[in-house]
Amino acid sequence: MRTHVSTVRNADAAAISEAAKLIREGRLVAFPTETVYGLGADATNGRAVAAIFAVKKRPRINPLIVHVKDIAQATQYVVFSGLARELAEAFWPGPLTLVVPRKADRALSLLVSAGLDTVAVRAPSHPVAMELIAQAGVPLAAPSANPSGSVSPTRARHVADGFGSGIDMILDGGHTPIGIESTVIGFDEDGPLMLRPGGVPRETIECVTGPLKTPCKGPVTSPGQLSSHYAPHARLRLNATRAEAGEALLGFGAAAPAGSLNLSPSGDLAEAAANLFAMLRTLDAEASAIAVMPIPAKGLGEAINDRLKRAAAPRGTP
Questions:
Q1: What are the structural domain ranges in the chain?
Q2: Pick from 98, 103, 92, 88: which is nearest to 121 by CA?
Q3: Domain topology for 7-209
Q4: Which of helix, strand or coil describes residue 294?
Q5: What share of the chain is helix, strand, coil (3-state, %, to 5)?
Q6: Is residue 302 classed as helix, strand or coil in its secondary structure?
């Protein structure tokens, strides 16, 4: 494992060009997407993909998302059904991941799909991510750029805090605008499945697909399905109306007490999603327990509540 201190570079043209070269050499680069920062490697290079799992200490049963430039690049490696293509055309580039069959004769590392016959794939809309993929000339395997199970990074300094060494470059593109991971949609013989709520709300996707099913608990088939995930060190108590002794309060809306960190004083769910992980990190540094006020379970609130539920789950829950 590499032991040098990770280099943080402002994501200008020269840094992106150097980062693309590092990717082609089989090395690891953290970069911003519209959702969170990703830890990228050449998805066709098994050694590079294995390095992601090693640096993150990520379970090998947990698949990675493969980031592509566009639908044309995706179809070099995976097979789209009619509905999957319709969703890609509607929401790419953007925070939607599709779990689709991989092409057996193509060069994607088997590690990215954790031994499954399907691959999670998306085209990010962040300009730095798009340019990095284009210049690298290969799809990027890129889970969130943080130690496995911990709070996802929405700023370059969050990545540096998690990986003081072990990766070759961190491209600093500022705060990620959406702030929670992509929505993950899978498919079975009966239709589309909501595998993970995220940056595209369920209601928006259902305008294309009709009602989405939620699969029963079973084997991990896509990223973001582990019960304990996105977790700070502090204990979380959800749907709290106030903080108890020893707790810090994460507020939401106008009812939050003055002086508490507030995901969105106006009750805006997009603002709350963008602030979620950064505010959890702030409170995690200040307290051993965090009380979180209720978040409406509509729109992006479904994804926010999903992350909070997983963050509050007992550590080590499979």
A1: 7-209, 235-312
A2: 98
A3: DHBP synthase (3.90.870)
A4: coil
A5: 30, 20, 50
A6: helix
What pLDDT does 221 receive? 62
Beta bridge partners of 237: 291
Rg (CA), the chain: 19
Residue 140, SS3 per DSSP: strand
Q: How far is the CA of 70 from the CAs of 41, 247, 286, in angstroms?
A: 17, 45, 42
**Alpha-carbon gap, residue 265 to 271, rounded angstroms:** 9
CA 282 from centroid of its chain's CA atoms:
19
Question: Tell me, what's the pLDDT at 190?
Answer: 86
- The sheet with strand 289-292 has its strands ordered as 235-237, 289-292, 247-251, 261-262
The rounded distance, in Å, linking the Cα atoms of 181 and 199 is 6
Strand partners, 231: 150
Determine the 3-state secondary structure of 300 from DSSP.
coil
Determine the pLDDT at residue 59: 82
CATH superfamily of 235-312: Threonylcarbamoyl-AMP synthase, C-terminal domain (3.40.50.11030)
Please list the ranges in the chain whose pLDDT falls under 50. Answer: 1-3, 317-318
Q: Report how far residue 158's alpha carbon sits from residue 139's, in angstroms, rounded to the nearest whole number.
A: 24
Q: Is the four-CA dihedral 99, 102, 108, 111 of positive or negative sign?
A: positive
Q: What is the model's pLDDT at position 317? A: 46
What's the confidence (pLDDT) of residue 25?
97
Residue with tokens 């069959």: 101
Question: H-type helices in 38-177, by residue range?
Answer: 46-56, 71-74, 82-91, 127-136, 156-162
Q: Find out whether 115 and 126 touch, Cβ atoms under 8 Å.
A: no
Query: pTM for this structure?
Result: 0.92
* Residue the block writes with tokens 């509540």: 305
